[in-house]
Amino acid sequence: MTNGATGESESDSEASDVSGSDGEDTSWISWYCNLRGNEFFCEVDDDYIQDDFNLCGLSSQVPYYDYALDLILDIESSHGDIFTEEQNELVESAAEMLYGLIHARYILTSKGLAAMLEKYKNYDFGRCPRVYCCGQPCLPVGQSDIHRSNIDGAYFGTTFPHLFLMTYDHLKPQKPSQRYVPRVFGFKLHKP
């Protein structure tokens, strides 16, 4: 066996190990969204990603932008042959970051909001643990639009939950009918 054949079989086995299924029918986007920890992501349409207008300004934020975009869109490229293993890992990391930033823009579109509505209805984002919230479904929000400034909130942005509830105003939580009254040993606390 030549090194080229060995490299191909290793990458094929890695792809099937990571995806946990055939690997042939699964796109990178589907695979990535189904990874543990990525349950909040919805699948962004290929058409949206292929429109350069939607990606405006992202090339300066993401290293290996072109290679990462090819990876996301499942476009065969020969960069695997010219890059070292470390550089391939950087491309994969860049693809994850690029997809997250694209996702933040996509979920503000009508199709993106509809996809997130399904996740919201399925309680994919969890429920509020407060008793007086009565199991209200939660929405993801970023405290910053800047990547890595605070966890990964940039992948949802600061606008999403507000736009979501404006679009689907019938889902807006009602004010609780009861108000929490703090007590110590059954006695109400005085107001300072």
Automatic annotation (TrEMBL):
Record InterPro entries: Casein_kin_II_reg-sub_N, Casein_kinase_II_beta-like, Casein_kinase_II_reg-sub
Residues in coiled coil: none
Q: Name one GO molecular function term.
A: protein kinase regulator activity
Write down the Pfam families for this protein, in alphabetical order: CK_II_beta
Signal peptide stretch = none
Show the GO cellular component annotation of the record. Answer: cytoplasm; protein kinase CK2 complex
Query: Belongs to which family?
Result: Belongs to the casein kinase 2 subunit beta family.
What does this protein do, in the record's words? Plays a complex role in regulating the basal catalytic activity of the alpha subunit.
| Assembly notes | Tetramer of two alpha and two beta subunits.
Record-given protein name: Casein kinase II subunit beta
